[in-house]
Amino acid sequence: MFALSACDDGFEELNVNPTKPVQLDPSTKFTYIQLYTGGSSYVAYLFWNIIHLMQNVQHLNNTSYASFLYKEGNTHWLFEEQFKTTVKNIADLESQLEVSTEATASIDLAITRVQKVLIFSRITDVYGDIPYSEAGKGFLEGVRFPKYDQQSAIYADMLLSLENAAATLSAGGTSSFGSADLMFSGDVAKWNKFANSLMLRLAMRMVKVDEAGAKSWATKAIDGGVMTSNADIAYIQYENSANDGGPNVNPLTKGFTSRASTQVKISKTFMDFMKTRNDPRVSVLASTVDGNTDFALQFGQDINDETRGDANSKPNINIFGGSGTIIYDAPFFFQTYAEVEFMLAEAAERWGLSGGTSNVETHYNAGVTAAMQYLSMYGHGVEITTAEIDTYLNSNPFVPAQALKMINEQYWVATFGNGLETFSNWKRSGYPELVPANVAATLTNGEIPRRLPYPASEKLNNSVNVEAAIVLQGGDLLTTRMWWDKK
Fold first, then answer.
1. Which Pfam families match (predicted)?
2. Which domain covers residue 213, as residue numbers?
């Protein structure tokens, strides 16, 4: 017996492979998380962003998918994709960094928590109440059926998390992420600006449900320091990898590329808004099927027109792909400086923040300018000159009496491609004033959808928690309004 027990001494150590790490390096995990935040599959992105959200806000007319408009269709993709990729991995990375003794751990953890807010804010702004406090803890804590947190509680925690992260980042320090950080290469100052800019975004979401809270958080964000130029934009530059259908290539341009020339068209609503103002972005955002960007040749397709043909404009195939042109390595923008300037303009108009009401026009003009200039980041010779921008602003001058309308209409144009953000800001602001498609009369009681319903998989696998959430939220319809989306 003694001999047997002695032979067992050190058995566990002997059976650990010394050549394999017991834990992945945080930077490796962080790269994975950032890539999957944009989307792990262009098919998923195609359905929830292009077919549902971008068509809901009438950036596009997806002629081949008219049957999906204002229907549940494939509304589950974002939820299912994000929870199995980014959510569980960001929870794991956060847990790892919380107990790390590395000198860079506090900065890495702050950056991770800003990324976490980006991930969860995108999901909750589409679905409403979602798993949050228990999400991603299946492996860590054995939570297989996470409860759904109310959006009001999720927002409160996300804002507090951003405030704490910004406090850490503003004090300075070094991140270990370096080039593994695909957005800012570990630049702590830029992450601090992003944390405050996200805080401002979340604050503005709350204007209808908690204006005092919205003002308070907007003030903190502005005082903390938000983006100040296009050099601060939060984006990922993807790879030119023809064989990659997943996270290494831009999901937006891959989605456009995968469709036939007759399928994805610029909507008449969006095109008319730009063309009547002689907007130079027409020749950047749109092209004919054969790639001609001449302003005079661009025409939008009515949201109720299901005709599949070569007539009418597409998203510019020279920078977004399509019709045989393949653009894998285009950048994808999570938040731009232009968006921040428009929010500063609104904060100045509503509450006298950021320089007061006398600065509303200044912020508005800065937003329009930045929104036109950042498009050069797509490359391929895209550039709107200073003279063109000045001509546009002089021909379409800011009207103080229409401040909120003009600010948020420009936000609508500036977020082309990021349907989730366009959809959320349209719900929040009410601008532009969109007319529902004809099918709304029979499918959604004449309304444009306000959210996407929960996946059937949740109702099968996590039924108790999702049904409780549906009761608290007041329904699970396309037209069910979430906490911050009030009339």
1. SusD-like_2
2. 26-242+329-473
